[in-house]
Here is the input.
Amino acid sequence: MAVQGTMNAALGKVVGLWESTLVVHVVGTLAVLAIIVGLGLGFDGLAQYGKAPWYVYLGGLLNVLIIYAVVRSIPRVGVGNATTAIVFAQLLTAVLIDHLGLFGVKKISFQYLDLLGVAMMAAAARILLNS
Here is the structure.
């Protein structure tokens, strides 16, 4: 994540924030297309897209927003600080998704040690972000 974010931020300095987000997605799309074609996997699974819940397609929108946020934040706060904030936000979101059983995942309730771990990570992130 740190290497990808740094590369995306470097691209963003050259071509612009939204433009770099577009370029990253086009390159990723071409890479996946090459893998599917190169490995002879075919596109049969795409015929099933209508069976997925509507909200799962919001992952693409979230991906655009995340890449834009990374490209914007790394030059301002640095790779270490941005990565720390991202990892903390991801962990907090993951624990919440588990606890609520969102998006069809198995519901796994918070344990006291989970909350302690998240609190300790928040304290560590705060220390790193203020350094």
